[in-house]
């Protein structure tokens, strides 16, 4: 899990409530990412940020919001507009400077399992 | 359409045996290919990253191969252990603007179970 922490590990919410998932990294990485993982599916990108105070939508950003006020932190809010919020959420970070060959190593946090009923 | 297909979907082997997982991709332009190991309920952990010029890379008992011409990769696990039970995810990165890294396209994973 490297130097990325996500909290809490399990989260339960009632339908219609917003919920914020925490992600912190101490790797001094410029870029941070949020993914969603559903059973039998590949990871899907929700949002990413390459610099403080800037972030970009991923493939499935609808119903989610993020902020990047500090380099170390990239919280994700799951809003009531997200139709199927129950999932496993993974935060990741990477340096923007590639290793040899041009690959950017991406490190993942331990994940937060969100259940909405 | 950029896609990553993994096979088999699941696999059961006995402890001590070898196995090979497959990954086929249609990502273009290609930048690099990664294999991750994900234990149940945990975040993925990187095993290998290979760029276009690399056709094999090892990490302990894990050996990944890449054939950029046929757009295929494999992950070979030698002398399997109970702790190898996990999902193995193939991830392909496209090449972005100016040769930078583009999007990551994730396969659905192969779920490996190693039995005693």
Q: Element order, helices and strands of chain A?
A: EEEEEEEEEEE
**Gyration radius of chain A, in Å:** 14 Å
* Structural class based on helices, strands and sheet pairing of chain B: mainly beta
* Helix proportion range of chain B: under 10%
Give an overview of the whole structure.
The complex is a heterodimer of chains A (117) and B (116). With 117 residues, chain A is an all-beta fold. Helices cover 0% and strands 48% of the residues of chain A. Chain A is built from no helices and 11 strands. In chain A, the strands form 2 sheets. In chain A, strands 2, 4, 5, 6, 9, 10 and 11 form a 7-stranded mixed β-sheet that branches. Chain A has a 4-stranded antiparallel β-sheet with strand order 1-3-8-7, with no helix packed on it. In chain A, strand 5 and strand 6 form a beta hairpin. Chain B is built from no helices and 11 strands. In chain B, the strands form 2 sheets. In chain B, strands 2, 4, 5, 9, 10 and 11 form a 6-stranded mixed β-sheet that branches. In chain B, strands 1-3-8-7-6 form a 5-stranded antiparallel β-sheet, with no helix packed on it. Chain B is an all-beta fold and 116 residues long. In chain B, 35% of the residues are buried. At the A-B interface, strand 9 and strand 10 of A face strand 4, strand 5 and strand 10 of B.
